[in-house]
Design goal:
The chain is mainly alpha-helical and about 150 residues long. Helix content is about 65%, strand content about 0%. It has 6 helices and no strands.
Amino acid sequence: MNPSSLYETDFYGWTQQQAKALAEKKFLDLDLPHLQEEIQALGRQEYRELVSRLSVLIGHLLKWEYQSEKRSRSWFLTIREQRRSIRRHLKHNPSLKSRLEDAMIDGYEAGVDLALRETNLPLRTFPNTSIYSFEQLLDDSFVCETNQDWNS
């Protein structure tokens, strides 16, 4: 079957066929336009993963800051987990650092939405742009210092 039509009818089969063609160095059997498209999509997926983790982190930091009376161990642990995940993601994808400014903007917008959903605070509570630097976001001592025994 033609690789291009297999792409349209059986994506998994197409991936297996393309991997085999690469392994066997059968370059004429490669569906180059779709391979290029899929490789670019993989890169976009890595960016979306970074934005997703930033949005969860920022949303929880906003909740932590603007609804301090409701702080919980769960919020603390989510912040810890997201910080670790972002560090690990950037370690495995260092080229994403060139997109940090965009990721911070996208992550902040989604983080505000998360905080709005989970706090019932009005939109005007939160600044229009991020109040956090990237360094602050990943700093384990930033914001989550507390008298609680959660970080022991």
